[in-house]
Amino acid sequence: MERKTRRARVAITLALTLGMAAAAAAQTSKAGEVSRVEGTAAVARTAAPQGTPLKAKDDVFLRDLVTTGEQSKAQLLLGGKAIVTMREQSTLRITEVPGVATVEITDGLLKLAVNKDKMKAGDRIDVKSPNAITAVRGTTIVVEVRKTPAGPTTRLSVLNGFAEITPIDPVTGAPRGAPVRVNDLQQTTVSGSGAAAPPQPINRNDAVRLDASFAFKLTPVASDDVLKRQLEQAASDASKLQNAGGAKLPGGGDGTPSVSGDDIRSRNVPQPTAPSSGGVRTSPRGN
Fold first, then answer.
1. pLDDT tens string 150-183
2. Structure pTM?
3. What CATH number does the domain located at 27-243 have?
4. CA pair distance 199, 202, nearest whole angstrom
5. How far is CA 281 from each of CA 158, 186, 274, rounded to the nearest angstrom?
6. Nearest to 77 by CA among 145, 125, 27, 143
7. How far is it, in rounded angstroms, from Cα 82 to Cα 283?
8. H or E element: which one contains 30?
């Protein structure tokens, strides 16, 4: 009996050790690196759940929770295949399974530009919001996520190429209906647990303006005091996201960032009516 008990303890210890090793390996798998930061950005990870500042050339690992502060932007290079640009007060996390990298955004605005020449056959990058998944293979898109009393709202704007968006259940993550194709210079919205609205054309001038909203300034204009305050806010946001990590991720993940607009204060973000940098096509529209 004592021998069986000892064996059971050894088995449990081994399982726990292997589990922690697997989690550590996932945490240390590099997803990309930071190419630019304007203002402040912070990251929360297992080794630093309180949030630490991000700067250019820092590595970003799978499952890192990245946030930007007020009047801030951050740009991430993902494996040489894609560029993600985050606007102010945005939150995202990157996960990966074979052939598919997923950028999860729960608040704010991001632009994703995918270099199709770098993508292998079967490769795909998904952008996952609380109520939709957008599949991207060689496209530039803008995704905005807003929290509303009626539930999350996801707005997809295609800058060039095309993408497919599938509404998902905000609670279970299960797909709700067939994918909807959104073509070059088109936009659609998914509200709550509803279907994707029929894609609407985007005026090219509006597209250029939205694209320009992701541009970086040549020099910072914030004072040291403002930058300090932004960093404190960004670190606080990252910490809140990490603390919410025990929640079940819609669709089977294990720890989606979950910070509401109220948590990171109200935003003054222009309503997007178009896509962004990396580019607005100047040639005639094509599907």
1. 899 999 999 999 999 999 999 898 999 899 999 9
2. 0.73
3. 2.60.120.1440
4. 9
5. 11, 12, 12
6. 125
7. 22
8. strand 30-38
